[in-house]
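Ticket #4471: structure output looks truncated?

Reporter: J.K.
Steps to reproduce: submitted the chain below (220 residues) through the standard prediction queue, then opened the result file.
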Amino acid sequence: MPFSRAKTELVAPEQALVGRADYAFAIPETHYVNGRPITPPFPDGMQTVVFGLGCFWGAEEIFWQAPGVWTTAVGYAGGTTPHPSYEEVCSGLTGHTEAVLVVFDPAQTTFAKLLAVFFEVHDPTQGMRQGNDVGTQYRSAIYYTDDTQRQVAETAKAAVTAQLTRVGYPPATTEIAPAGEFYYAEPYHQQYLAKNPNGYRCHSNTGLTFPADSLVGPQS
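Returned output as attached by the reporter:
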């Protein structure tokens, strides 16, 4: 993707771009693939989580195909600038990472299963990059929506780090933080690879299988 020369150090909040009070574009009402809404309100019982794992085009494609996922959207999370544009995020001056909003049905899947997908399809050790995509907007991140998700995410990261270091990788750098404001990306980014099947995909990964036996309980 363009603009991958972005800085690899997070911008200080006081130095971030000012942004804007609202979106400068219309957010699509429905998912291009499954026709479901991509903005709240979602059906009762659905749960949400936001993942950052590099370029959001390929990341979203993986999650909209995952069993139990009700809908997805791409956007910007974890930063400071309100309602940023793609170019602003790629400048490294907003603090956001490219992210995927995942809305899932806990009757059909679990948070732990989504974490398994997350950790297996990217390399969580690379810091502010994924493969040749370099910049703070490509960092690994889990933005949780409740304390149970936080606990499971932290347990999963510790287990993955133990597995990685045993085979010579550095520890996982995945950011784990409460989900703040999720700013939807421009319409052309939403479900981009369904509209452009030959488009860019970045799936750096370690080749390791997620240690699912490290997680127990209702989210496993």
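Triage note (M.O.): checked the attachment and the full token line is present. The CA atoms of residues 158 and 172 lie 8 Å apart.
Status: closed, working as intended.
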